[in-house]
Amino acid sequence: MATATASTPVRDTGIGALLRRRAVVKLLLLAVVAAVAVPILNAKWASGAWPEALTVDLTEPLTKASDWIIDNRDSHWLFTYFFGHISNAIVLSVRGVYLVLLAAGWAGVTVAAGAIAWRVAGLRLAALATAAFAVCGLLGMWVPTMQTLALMVVAVLASVIVGMLLGLAAGLNDRIFRMMRPVLDTMQVLPAFAYLLPVVLVFGIGVPAAVLATVVYSAPPMARLTALGLRGADGGVMEAVASLGATARQRLLSARLPLARKELLLGLNQTIMMALSMAVIASVIGAGGLGDRVYQALSSVDVGQALAAGIPIVLLAVVLDRVTGAAGERLGAHTEDNSPLRGWRGWSIAAAVTLACALAARFADRLEWPTSWVVQIAEPVNTAKDWMVDHLYTGVPVVGGTADWAAHFTKYVLDPLRDGLQGLPWWSVLLIVAALAWVIGTWQTALTAVLAMAAIGVLDVWNASLDTLSQVLAGVAVTVVLGFAIGIAASRSRRLEALLRPVLDVFQTMPQFVYLIPVVALFGVGRAPAVAAAVVYALPAVIRITTQGLRQVSPAAMESAQSLGATSWQQLRQVQLPLARPALMLALNQGVVLVLAVVVIGGLVGGGGLGYDVLAGLARGDLATGLVGGIAIVCLGLMLDRVTQPTERRAKKGA
Amino acid sequence: MRVRTRMTAALAGVGALVALSGCGKADMSKQSSPYANAAGAKTVTLSVQSWVGAQANVAVAEYLLKEELGYRVDKVQIDEIPAWDALSQGRVDAIMEDWGHPDQEQRYIKDKKTIVPGGGVGVTGHIGWYVPTYFAKKHPDVTDWKNLNKYAKDFRTPESGGKGQLMDGSPSYVTNDKALVENLDLDYKVVFAGSEAAQITQIEQFAKQQKPFLTYWYKPQWLFKKVPMTEVKLPAYKEGCDADPAKIKCAYPHTPLQKFFNADFAENGGKAAEFLKNFKWSEADQNEVSLLIADKKMSPEDAAKKWIDANESKWRGWLPK
């Protein structure tokens, strides 16, 4: 899950004024460039959409490459001596973990989860972990849960190793750090959907491809936080260690890494969350496990069954998040642990209990989850869904049904937006992108954004990309309006925030696929349901960051405003919102990235655009369509991120 | 120093990799799923396609493999063409229902010899354009493609712009619809629902409101029992008229659906392979199970059990002697 925290440096109005003046200067400069360039460009390639002359057709080379790979996969040394070994190693390790989990049986695994949570994070979380695993069994999802867990263990381990190696290099070497930062930045804004196809081509459908796609997706936070932790090591301590004559390796192992423990744990936490969300998307390429169950249930329009497979994913996410989070907090707390169970004693008790339970279950011949202990939730859920659809779809007095909303939204928002974007001359789109990115960021961000947009044109997917862009813009607009409103409300009422928290948790961790069928049932096939699903998915992050940002506004500023007799509304408008501007910008940025990630999956419900291209590429084994679509999504993500990325965030990342 | 540490780590990593997978060559054509044959159980991995007919085949096969022959069955949902690739790599053992993929047959069966045909399922498939019967009764002439333009305005939706909507499903399904609309000069826009689930949901929604719609659809399919649909006549299919995808001007053929096995599995799969080769049932049988799964929302397992309990004479013959 791409959550992020916001910091809110209090800025005086002087900088704001300066920024505004700088923005005017930038725009003037841009206008001068445009005045020179546009007539030339227009004279040479006068056309509305991207000019044909400036495109490159990759169909032939890509199709050739794809054929070559399939034909040589069984014989070429690249595969038999390199990729084949990677693939085998992944299969073997996933299999190994899976066999251990199966051998432990449901009792062993459940107790082990509780015991680990107890040692790492205390009794309360131990109860939560045990209960969560029991629910996975109760829902009849034990075996798929174990398959997903096995895949996750291997994927997270690989991500952590890769991430830490990258992070070590970046943490110890300034040049590598500078080179790697933009790469990691970029990797994190790319929708995972875009890079399924290349891995599938090389590794084929199945677990190895899924694990590798997951590693690409979830290693960056680990790398970034490792580097951050290493670079943030206290200078005094480092000097002291050096003065004691420690070698470089000793300094790293005995001082730097231990000092960075907190960041490392946070990195682990983020990596786990991202890997879990990927586990479901990877079901499109045959990863098996829970994601596959969700996907299979959806194909027979069985929302109840999809939910039954989705809940274990949410539970795994919540448990892993809370346990690693609590472990991080404990590290930070530095309390002296005096209980008789500390250290190895506690762990050996935990191990003994686990072993006893596993053996007991084994001798009682109860290794598999008993089928009589399964609760069917599919039917009531489906009944509820049918009721909703029957009563909300159309003809509701006064407000109209959801289908009517969708039709209106498509007709009055999506269509004009898409037609407007596609109708704009291509160079003006580039200019707008440049202006937005430059005003908000630096000339480098503007250049990246323009180049990304131009690449879309060169790849000859201009119209499809603008179609997707129009959906993203509409989705972001809705998300931001709702998110800011709810976020403001939550920042003013602790009660509301507490009520919202579990709801947001669920929506943030529930696999995106689970939303897709209910939104079709409510909004019909088309772009409207894709946008709706995206809004549901992106909303929690936006609400969270907004609430947090508003909460962190300095109490002194608030108090002084109050003492000046400002009303609650005035306080919000004139003090809180301006001061929380960086957080609000970050919320917008996250909203954009998350909406894009789901809008492209909307290809599955008729969203069209780039998502459909990727899907078609995957489904037909058509590398040319799929890869070009994927690259275009990447470019679009890059452009959108740069256009909405405030300079402040960049500065903070470099810390 | 630092460089050496990293080198050591890298070497250790590579070493571990090689050690894990055994030295020497790795065979990309023998890549079974990590979940297969776990914990002493014999496993068969079946590819399930996203349509319910395929799920019905797999459900019945799974139940019998489990109860009668003692196998565990793993199912993986994969789209049609990637499924061929997965089959050739050994990640799945069998495809139980294929709608005809000549390119893939050439590549994997004839050239690479990693896949072998497994005989027919006993079901004949047909793709076509359909309108709901309630609409066809009111406007009988809609069932000829020549009159479709007259009705374009009835099939208009927000997604189709000013034209009529021809709804297609998953991008993975065999379809010539875009070319057909173009070559037959129809005032329609092909709108891809993106997945069969989305398409079914939309069709049911239309039917509930008794709205007209035109959709790509196929037989056998359980949905016909719930939403009766009438086929629109396209120019007749002749052998070879669909050879050039850009110039297609004719209807879809009737295809006897086929099973395909991984070559290695077909040879060494023992009783499971023999059983799957013998598996053959009728359209009515498949629809019965499909309807239980998709409409009655029975779990595939329960649906299969119901059919199996009632039809023992039919499946007894599939079991290896």
List the topology elements.
The complex is a heterodimer of chains A (655) and B (321).
Chain A: H1 13-44, H2 59-72, H3 77-121, H4 123-138, H5 142-172, H6 174-189, H7 196-203, H8 207-231, H9 235-243, H10 248-259, H11 261-281, H12 289-299, H13 303-333, H14 344-363, H15 378-392, H16 402-423, H17 426-440, H18 443-458, H19 462-492, H20 494-509, H21 512-523, H22 527-551, H23 555-563, H24 568-579, H25 581-601, H26 609-620, H27 623-643, H28 647-653
Chain B: H1 2-21, E1 42-48, H2 52-67, E2 71-77, H3 80-89, E3 94-98, H4 102-111, E4 115-132, H5 133-138, E5 164-168, H6 177-183, E6 188-192, H7 196-208, E7 214-219, H8 223-226, E8 229-232, E9 254-262, H9 263-268, H10 270-278, H11 283-294, H12 300-310, H13 312-316
Parallel strand pairs in B: 1-2, 1-3, 5-6, 5-7
Antiparallel strand pairs in B: 3-9, 4-7, 4-8, 4-9
Helix pairs in contact in B: 2-11, 2-12, 11-12
Give a quick rundown of the structure:
Chain A has helices at residues 13-44, 59-72, 77-121, 123-138, 142-172, 174-189, 196-203, 207-231, 235-243, 248-259, 261-281, 289-299, 303-333, 344-363, 378-392, 402-423, 426-440, 443-458, 462-492, 494-509, 512-523, 527-551, 555-563, 568-579, 581-601, 609-620, 623-643, 647-653. Chain A has 655 residues and is mostly helical.
Rounded to the nearest angstrom, the distance between the terminal CA atoms of chain A is 22 Å
- Largest sheet geometry of chain A: none
Class by helix and strand content of chain A? mainly alpha
Beta-strand proportion of chain B = 15-25%
- Poorly predicted runs of chain B are none
What is the number of helices of chain A? 28
Main beta sheet of chain B: 9 strands, mixed
Number of strands of chain B: 9
The oligomeric state of the chains shown is: heterodimer
Number of strands of chain A: 0
What are the secondary-structure elements of chain A, in order, as H or E? HHHHHHHHHHHHHHHHHHHHHHHHHHHH
Mean pLDDT of chain B: 86
Q: What class do helices, strands and sheet pairing of chain B give? A: alpha/beta
